[in-house]
Amino acid sequence: MPNPLEAVWNTLKTTIDNINEPPTPLHIIEAGDCWTYLTMVEEFLRYEEIGLNTTTDDEVREMLTDILKTCESQKKELNEFMVKEGIPLPDVTSPKPKSSSKDIPLGVKLTDEEIANGVAFKLVVCLQACGKGQADSIRNDVGMMWLGFYLEWVTVGKVLKTLMIKRGWIKVPPYYYPPGSPQQ
User: Fold this and answer.
1) 27, 159, 162, 169 - which has most CB atoms within 10 Å?
2) Contact 142, 26 (CB under 8 A)
3) Nearest CA to 132 among 141, 122, 142, 121?
């Protein structure tokens, strides 16, 4: 079984060994992963803005604000990287204006549970995209960038899951009992 610490050490060693060499150009899949992920993060930002305009719950608002900061940080890092590498930036949706939760009709307004589950879904998609980007990357700097994004989402996910469990909002699939096992 591979040792995770050994893998991290080998990556760091390779990075240090290649520190004086100019990085190779990105391959098309690395560039595409960056473009796709930046588009996803921008759309995630719009969802968080909608959630902030909708919720009146302080814990949900705090969670959305923290995720907004994570998305903004990743967006900035990826924007700078893409500009430096010559990757065209995607055309994205404009930021949502701030509005009052009281101005949104009840039938249209997202509930706090819907907001949290929407965030959870988007979080899973971002985690998958980071894993794919990391697996596709040849350059160590690109792989480390994806790993950093992934670890940020893991931290966000822990906070989100704790809130969702506390509020009873987590969606749990039916339990699986294999044929022949005693029913519980």
Assistant:
1) 169
2) yes
3) 142
Instruction: Compute the distance between CA of residue 47 and CA of residue 39 in angstroms, rounded to an integer.
Output: 13
pLDDT tens digits, one per residue of 108-166 = 889 999 999 999 999 999 999 999 999 999 998 999 999 999 999 999 999 999 999 99
DSSP conformation letters of 2-31: --HHHHHHHHHHHHHHTTTSPPPPPPHHHH
Report residue 78 as tokens.
């990826």
Burial zone of 142 (CB within 10 Å; 0-12 exposed, 13-18 middle, 19+ buried): buried
Instruction: Give the residue from 42, 68, 43 showing the smallest Cα distance to 55.
Output: 68
Residue type, 46: R
Q: Which of 45, 48, 42 is nearest to 82 (CA)?
A: 42
CA pair distance 115, 67, nearest whole angstrom: 12
What are the structure tokens assigned to 30, written together? 């690395």
Who contacts 23 (Cβ-Cβ below 8 Å, separation ≥6)? 139, 141
Q: Is the pTM of this model over 0.90?
A: no
Q: How far apart are CA 111 and CA 50, in angstroms?
A: 11
Instruction: Please identify which residue in the block is written with the tokens 């065209």.
Output: 88
